[in-house]
Amino acid sequence: MAGRVAVITGAASGIGRGLAEEGARQGLRLVLADIDEAALRALAAQLQGQGSEVLACVTDVADPEQVARLRDAAVARFAGVDLLFNNAGVMQTGYSWTIDARQWQRMLDINLKGVINGIHAFMPLLLEQGRPAHVVNTASLAGLVSSPLMAPYNVTKQAVVALSETLHYELEQLGAQVAVSVLCPGPVASAIMASDAVAEGPAAALNALLDDSIRAGMAPRALAELVFQAVAEKRFWILPHKFFKPALEQRLRSILDESNPRFVMADGQGDAHAAR
Ligand SMILES: NC(=O)c1ccc[n+]([C@@H]2O[C@H](COP(=O)([O-])OP(=O)(O)OC[C@H]3O[C@@H](n4cnc5c(N)ncnc54)[C@H](O)[C@@H]3O)[C@@H](O)[C@H]2O)c1
Predict the structure, then answer these.
(1) Half-sphere exposure of 34 (CA within 13 A, CB side)
(2) How remote is the CA of residue 33 from the centroid of ligand 1, in Å?
(3) Do 7 and 57 contact (CB within 8 A), yes or no?
(4) What are phi and psi of 67, to 5 degrees?
(5) Domain assignments of the chain as residue spans, ordered by start
(6) What is the reported pLDDT for 276?
(7) What pLDDT digit, counting tens, does each position of 49-82 carry?
(8) Does the beta carbon of 93 lie inside 6 Å of ligand 1?
(9) What is the DSSP code (8-state) at residue 95?
(10) For residue 124, is pLDDT > 90?
(11) Distance CA 215, CA 8 (A)
(12) Which of 19, 21, 24, 260 is buried deepest, with most CB atoms within 10 A?
């Protein structure tokens, strides 16, 4: 990995920060993008202080022009890009019908269009470079199994999985040197629940539950090690948590059997139980 250039969105916190720190440890040259300028500059200074080559670009992934500028800045500084992590994302909970148009738009713009903007801006460059490159799109367990009270999150993350699979088939058909992975983690210690604007009614209880499990979640650096390993092995599916597989299996079986879906809450303790 050493010397390769990695662009990471949502780099200033949580999973993105873990990827940046682990990437720096592995000798990558880093292009870090985030909308939170203060946190981004602090991380860039920390990694530069440890001897890493880092370019920090304040970027809103929801804006295609800013993502194109991010690509141009990466090329201007490092003459190319080897790894792209479309990672920035936010949370919104609440009953599907209580989430208003503005909240839906924010989720679609950041969680889905953010990834679309990354693919659109960077893929031509990665293909034209004529050398191996890799894209990792951060989805979630919610990209594979739906939970109540999380409609915009489920919708955007399942769309990211669909986009990533499509991209994978297209790159295979082209025989391209560019590969893609989709990262579907369970709880990882991060600040994501702070991005959830709604905390009343049943959503407040869900928030508290999610907050607890995220606080106790996998360490971002440990996750980043698994991600870099998967990239080295060119693995499409990156599923760091295994506890949700019974819920996924049940969902797939219900589709194949054409039986009605039944919500199974994966509890992270190695088993899954039916929610009341
Ligand atoms: N933490 C978890 O348990 C978990 C589980 C599955 C998937 N994920 C996904 O991981 C990704 C990273 O989230 P996290 O948990 O590290 O959360 P986080 O809140 O700690 O980090 C997200 C970062 O994205 C940045 N960001 C938000 N909106 C942005 C925008 N418009 N443009 C650029 N940057 C923006 C934030 O400033 C923040 O630094 C998200 O896509 C999230 O959905 C997280």
Answers:
(1) 23
(2) 12
(3) no
(4) -70, -35
(5) 5-241, 243-276
(6) 24
(7) 999 999 999 999 999 999 999 999 999 999 999 9
(8) no
(9) -
(10) yes
(11) 22
(12) 19
Q: Could you tell me whether strands 178-183 and 133-138 are parallel, antiparallel, or unpaired per DSSP bridges?
A: parallel
Question: Would you call 149 helix, strand, or coil by DSSP?
Answer: coil
At 143 the pLDDT is 98
What CATH number belongs to 5-241? 3.40.50.720
Indicate whether residue 140 lines ligand 1 (CB < 6 A): yes
What is the rounded distance in angstroms from the CA atom of residue 32 to the CA atom of residue 40?
7
Which atom in ligand 1 lies closest to the alpha carbon of residue 11?
Answer: 39
- Read off the pTM: 0.96
Q: Which residue has the tokens 């499409």?
A: 236
Q: Is 247 within 8 Å of 145 (Cβ atoms)?
A: yes
Q: Rounded to an integer, what distance in angstroms lies between the CA atom of residue 29 and that of residue 80?
A: 11
Residues taking part in catalysis: 153
Closest-CA residue to 247 (of 213, 273, 210, 216): 273
Q: Is the dihedral of CA 86, 252, 261, 210 positive or negative?
A: negative
Torsion of CA 46, 51, 52, 55, to 10 degrees: 60
For ligand 1, whether the C-beta of 154 sits within 6 Å is no
Whether 125 has a pLDDT exceeding 60, the answer reads yes
Q: Is the CB of 88 under 6 A from ligand 1?
A: yes
Ligand 1 geometric centre to CA of 14 (Å): 7
Phi, psi (rounded to 5 degrees) for 26: -85, 5
Structure token digits, residue 141: 């367990």
Q: How many A from CA of 10 to the centre of ligand 1?
A: 6
**pLDDT band at 273, cuts 50/70/90?**
very low
CA of 168 to the centre of ligand 1 (A): 23
C-beta 150 within 6 A of ligand 1: no
CA angle 142/30/187 to nearest 5° reads 20
